[in-house]
Amino acid sequence: MIKYLIFCESYRASHPGFLYWLRERNTGGKLDEGIWFQGNEKYAFVGLYDANGGPKRTRSIGLAFTTEDENVKCNFEVAFPEDEEQKKVKFYKQVVKLVGGNLSSGKLRFEKELSATDGFTEAVNFLNTIKPKIDALVKKNNLQQIFITPEKFKNKLQAILQNRI
């Protein structure tokens, strides 16, 4: 799991405005085990916004990383609760359309593979090109409350760096 934290912090070093979601609770001792992102020992979900992802129990929009052998796979995922307000559902549909997908009626999840072998490179491409467009959609839809606040990010990162590494 440390490689995902190193990736995020390396990206943030050259993009100081990049904030991402870290695990808050030590449910099942996951923080103690070094599972600092939402997910488990097999995958890390790097949330890009502070909005509930509903069925996956993650954030609503983010990058999911898995490693097989030496290959890092990266998927872009959108998920939201069944009872989500329509304003946000409209926004999520716009996000899915932005990446060339379609969120069918009644569907609460969307997943798009960015890379099966070179996930970090494709994640950087995504963060450089697509995330700014999603940020613009957040503002256009007046959903600024889903941006991760610097204070919330800083507190979570400090807790992990001080107590876990």
Give, in order, the helices and strands: HEEEEHEHHH
Going across the biggest sheet, name each strand in turn.
Answer: 1-2-3-4-5
Count structural domains: 1
Q: How would you describe the shape?
A: globular
How many separate helices? 5
Structural class: alpha+beta
Described by strand count, sense and barrel closure, the largest sheet is: 5 strands, antiparallel
Could you give the distance between the termini? Answer: 11 Å
Low-confidence segments, given as residue ranges, are none
User: Mean pLDDT, rounded to whole units?
Assistant: 90
Please report the total strand number as a whole number. 5
Can you give the helix content as a percent range? Answer: 25-40%
Cα-based radius of gyration, to the nearest Å = 15 Å
Strand content: 15-25%
Give the structure's gist in a few sentences.
With 165 residues, the protein is an alpha+beta fold. It has helices at residues 2-14, 86-98, 119-129, 131-140, 150-163, and strands spanning 38-39, 43-47, 61-68, 71-79, 109-115.
Describe this structure in words.
The protein has helices spanning 2-14, 86-98, 119-129, 131-140, 150-163; strands at residues 38-39, 43-47, 61-68, 71-79, 109-115. The protein has 165 residues and is α+β, with helices and mostly antiparallel strands. The protein has one domain (2-143). Strands 1-2-3-4-5 form a five-stranded antiparallel sheet. The mean pLDDT is 90.
